[in-house]
Amino acid sequence: MNSPAGSAYHRLAPSVLALALSGFVAVATGDTTDAPITTGDFGWQLTQARVLSHGVTTRVPVGTLTEDYLVEAVATATTDGTPVPQGRFEISVSAFQPARDMPGQKAGVWYVRANWAVMDEQASEEEQAARHSPSIVRGSLSAELPFNPANTAGTMDAAVRLPMSPDGGRWSRGDGTFTGSQVFEGEIQIRAQLLPDVLPTEEAQP
After folding, report:
1. How buried is 23 (Cβ within 10 angstroms: 0-12 exposed, 13-18 middle, 19+ buried)?
2. How far is Cα 130 from Cα 22, in angstroms, rounded to an integer?
3. pLDDT at position 141
4. Are strands 155-165 and 86-98 parallel, antiparallel or unpaired?
5. What pLDDT shows up at residue 34?
6. Are 111 and 103 in contact, with CB atoms under 8 Å apart?
7. Confidence class of residue 16 from pLDDT cuts 50, 70 and 90?
8. What is the mean pLDDT of the chain?
9. Taking Cα atoms as reference points, which of 62, 139, 74 lies closest to residue 98?
10. In angstroms, what CA-CA distances link 76 with 23, 35, 93, 191?
11. Mean pLDDT in residue range 59-85
12. What phi, psi does 103 have (nearest 5°)?
């Protein structure tokens, strides 16, 4: 049975339309120029982590699955220009360990997938529920580990990704890393591509 906390964290999932948004931007804004895309470094230091739920671990015929490992922490920007410079970090984690070698997966390795967000503490309920908000940055995380972070202490280097979206107040996308502990105390570093600020043309407005 899903807990209220689990249901809330499931809202962190990135939109399945993210891959199409890069093309949508030019159409929706009416911008047909080759405006330059700039790059920028985003980063947060994550501290004071608190485990909200260790999740549910189930043995299945093909391996072991953990779902709904939930953690929150304090996020503080480490670079100028980082959206949501001070806020709350939330992450919902699933981990799978195959019992035998499978296509693309090795027996004994924990394959970790997660959705995370950094949210301004002052964000309203409406902003938190919105698909996109300048008060929230959402992304995903993946890692291959020798341990299950939901129940075993350890350190990790994980890949993080920002899908194309206007979260944080500007259209951007990026890739980076999380380095830290199994309770997600550590640091997120992202190299982001920033789209130019453009306004909708009259024809593009509904």
Report:
1. exposed
2. 20
3. 98
4. unpaired
5. 56
6. no
7. very low
8. 81
9. 62
10. 32, 31, 21, 17
11. 95
12. -55, 120
Q: Residue 27 is which amino acid? A: V
Residue with the larger pLDDT of the pair 81 and 128: 81
Using an 8 Å Cβ cutoff, are 65 and 58 in contact?
A: yes
- Tokens standing for residue 53: 């739920």
Which amino acid is located at 191 in the chain?
R
> Exposed (0-12), middle (13-18) or buried (19+): which is 60, by Cβ within 10 Å?
exposed
CA distances (Å), origin 130, targets 8, 137, 150: 13, 12, 29
DSSP collapsed to 3 states, the chain: CCCHHHHHHHHHCCCCCHHHHHHHHHHHHCCCCCCCCEEEEEEEEEEEEEEEECCEEEEECCEEEEEEEEEEEEEEECCCCCCCCEEEEEEEEEEEEECCCECCECCCCEEEEEEEEEEECCCCHHHHHCCCCCCEEEEEEEEEECCCCCCCCCEEEEEEEEEEECHHHCCEEEEEEEEEECCCCEEEEEEEEECCCCCCCHHHCC
For residue 42, which of 198, 187, 197, 195 has the smallest C-alpha distance?
187
